[in-house]
Amino acid sequence: MDYSGKTILVVGAGRSGTASARFLLARGARVILTDKKNVDTLGPMITPLCDLAASHGELVLELGGHREHTFRSCDLVVVSPGVPLALPLFDISRRAGIPVIAEVELAFRHLKGRIIGITGSNGKTTTTVLVTELLKGAGLSAFSAGNIGTPLISLAANSCPDDIYVVELSSFQLEGIDRFRPFIASILNLTPDHLDRYADFDDYIKAKRRIFANQTFTDYAVLNADDPRTSALAAEVTSQPVLFSRLQEVAAGTFVRGDKVYYRSESGEKELFATNTVSLKGSHNLENVLAACSMALLTGASPDTFAETIRSFPG
Predict the structure, then answer these.
(1) CB within 8 A of 36, min separation 6: which ones?
(2) Burial tier of 118 (Cβ tally within 10 Å: 0-12, 13-18, 19+)
(3) What pLDDT digit, counting tens, does each position of 277-286 carry?
(4) Four-point Cα dihedral 297, 303, 305, 309, nearest 10
(5) Which one of 112, 148, 220, 241 has the minimum C-beta count within 10 Å?
């Protein structure tokens, strides 16, 4: 999309919102940045955008509350992760035929390189960082982003085809995707969470499952074989299911046998390292390590440096 002269409404002036605004201003857009907080609170986040807008695009600030008319008079709405997509104002945009997307969706449309998407109720951050470190240790160009703190859109401008972006995704971010398609997507586990925002647990799971929505058979779904809710998804996804388990052997993926970790694929079975290599304590962290290894191996990374990386990984 050519943003020059387009009016883009960015909702939420936090880290993701200002990163989205910065990306769009640099491409000549007229950006309206709106937030319920006032300028006194947001000043340090806003000042660099005002400086950029002096030479690129146009910046309009609507702070201290949202203005209904703005939601029906723009070309695109970009939503920050902390803003509920159930907000009635977004229905105004949708009824007017205006697309409403999450920041990660905007980033996906402009990123060069491959994306690994990681979600789940627990362990997302640890696993995201570990996958990134495993890839770096294997000599690949890898970056962590998403709900972990670095907005994915902030990496888009300088992205390269050989890069791999390991993205932590919340259910809130997944609500706002459209074409977002990670070539590897993982749900680590599912337990009741954020039920103040969702009607029930099934509604929460539905939001998480959106991570697989645009995958095809050439992609991979990495799932926890020891969690009945995630393992059941193996029969439902359109991508290739790859499992991880600390309790049982799996047909494809990582698992524990005795005191060793193994990876099994169509090309055979390979011992990766001993379980006492894992410095992080707890069975949940062993599951995170198993998941991370599956994802790293699916990128084509060599496992030769995995043991060293995992031994020194602080969590």
Answers:
(1) 64, 65, 66
(2) buried
(3) 998 889 999 9
(4) 50
(5) 112
For residue 227, the SS3 value is coil
Out of 48-52, 158-162, 223-227, which region has the weakest mean confidence (pLDDT)?
48-52
DSSP category for residue 141: -
What are the chain's domains?
A: 7-98 (3.40.50.720), 111-312 (3.40.1190.10)
Closest CA to 75 of 159, 131, 4: 4
| Cα(180)–Cα(182) distance, integer angstroms | 7
Closest CA to 297 of 309, 285, 314: 309
3-state helix, strand, coil in the chain (%, to 5): 35, 25, 40
270: left (phi over 0), alpha (psi -120 to 50) or beta: beta
Q: 163 and 113 in contact (C-beta within 8 Å)?
A: yes
**b/e sequence 207-231, b meaning 16+ C-beta within 10 Å:** bbbbbbebbeeebbbbbbbbbebbb
Average pLDDT of the segment spanning 239-248: 98
pLDDT band, very low/low/confident/very high, at 151 (cuts 50, 70, 90): very high
The single-letter code of the amino acid at 108 is F
0.90 cut: is pTM over it?
Answer: yes
157: DSSP letter? T
What sign does the CA torsion over 51, 57, 60, 61 have?
negative
Residue whose pair of structure tokens reads 């992080």 in the numeric block: 280
Task: Quote the radius of gyration of the chain (alpha carbons, Å).
Answer: 21
Looking at residue 196, its pLDDT comes to: 67
C-beta separation of 173 from 185 below 8 A: no
